[in-house]
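User: Please run a holo structure prediction.
Assistant: Happy to. Please share the sequence and the ligand.
User: Here you go; the ligand is magnesium ion.
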Amino acid sequence: MREAVIEIKELYKSFGDNHVLRGVDLELYKGENLVVLGKSGSGKSVLIKILVQLLKQDSGYIKILGQDISKLDLKSLNKLRLRIGFAFQASALYDSMTVKENMEFPLTRNIKNLSRKEIDYKIERLLDSVGLPKTINQMPSELSGGQKKRIGVARTLILNPEIMFYDEPTAGLDPITCIDINNLINQVREEYKTSSIVITHDLTCAKDTGDRMAVLVEGQFKAVGSFGEVFEEATDPNIKSFYDYNFMR
Amino acid sequence: MEDNRPIISNKTDDFFRGLADAFAFVKRFFQEVWFPPYEFKEILRQCYEIGYRSLPLISLTGFIIGIVFTNQSRPSLAEFGATSWLPALISIAIVRALGPLVTALIASGKVGSSIGAEIGSMKVTEQIDAMEVSAINPFKYLVVTRTLATTFMIPVLVMYTDFVALIGAFLNVNQNELVSLSTFFVQVFEAISFLDVFSSVIKSLVFGFTIGIVGCYKGYNSTKGTEGVGKAANSAVVMSMFLIFIEELLALQIVNAIRYS
Ligand SMILES: Nc1ncnc2c1ncn2[C@@H]1O[C@H](COP(=O)(O)OP(=O)(O)O)[C@@H](O)[C@H]1O
Ligand SMILES: [Mg+2]
């Protein structure tokens, strides 16, 4: 049995009459990239937001890195959050701060007693590893969409997370930049030994970055497995249409 | 199954839910303001922004109000041959009512709307979520700092407005009644009492708090999309102006009760 870093059982979440998650079961294994696919509005973002408790579940069991998250107080929750990196769909760079200040903000607020030299070294090393050392003094508004995504990833990596969530990392990017981002996701796994959930509705991204696929249909995971298992042998019309849309155009 | 029937009617329910929400927001401010981290740097930065943003407009408006109000009051006093009372009349009007009110209304427009828009856009672009998941308390970093900054800065700006308006008034009086600067200000300070200044400062603190907390509240609760941000900014202005007038009326009642007791 492989070690699971995240275990989700019977997870439910509704917004009024909108029943978004209806009994989600899922595991994320150590060291893997799990791709979560699903139509727009199917609840992919809601799922990972619940995992970091930006949203509260209605019911269900969630265990992350050995801790039952419904039993955590704010302090322990925050400690757990620091072990998880969250790359937001819109990058979520603080637009009143430079790239450098963006990277420094989570670092200096959570780790006290770092020297100026250590901070600068960490920032420079991360910017190098996402390939954007020259942007250090730029404002987010001066960056392209792909650059913002990279900085967003670098900013979450600065606290050395064990788990990474990528919310639609390639959405709204041109195909070439998509390939760059896919490579970055794989590179992050190599360098930082992270386990990741990659949310996408782009099958190229899924194929390039994922070890396993999980397809969210009507509030539940309908198919979980390798790319081949899920798509090439798909019989469910919801999943088939996904494949056809991406590759048969 | 969930029961989705309204308690009174959907609209009334929403109104009271909104009210409860707003109260919870204010309550959270008073719970969090006492504990570290205090974010002094961010508070100072906000104070500077507030002053910088509103000074030009406040200077101009204060000055013009001083001139216009003096000019418009003159004929009524002249009827009784009492134009020598102009400095006293004007200073009371400015310190008690015009200064705080004008400053607060301008700051609602300039500062309140920009706080609403800034926090609103941080909300819809997930910057607030990003803070939360990196274990930073966004309420503290954004709401507490901005609200404290407006609470401290509005009284300062009010004193400045009072001063500029009095200068405007002096120029007008000096031209028409040939009163010197020192005579003018002696008359001004004779007319205003400690209670006037004290109540004006307290009132300004309340106005400042209102502008900050309303801007933050509207931004924090803005809905997705760019029009959500615009709406947040707009309703921050409308709401804080409305509240400022209500507070002005309440303050008037309270101060009068003290003054004539
Ligand atoms: N904070 C919220 N309040 C109300 N409804 C929400 C909220 N967040 C998401 N939803 C709803 O949940 C559904 C799933 O949203 P989401 O997870 O963002 O979809 P996606 O799979 O595209 O990421 C949508 O119908 C959305 O309107
Ligand atoms: Mg989404």
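The pocket of adenosine-5'-diphosphate (ligand 1) is lined by residues A 15, 18, 20, 38, 40-46 (CB under 6 Å).
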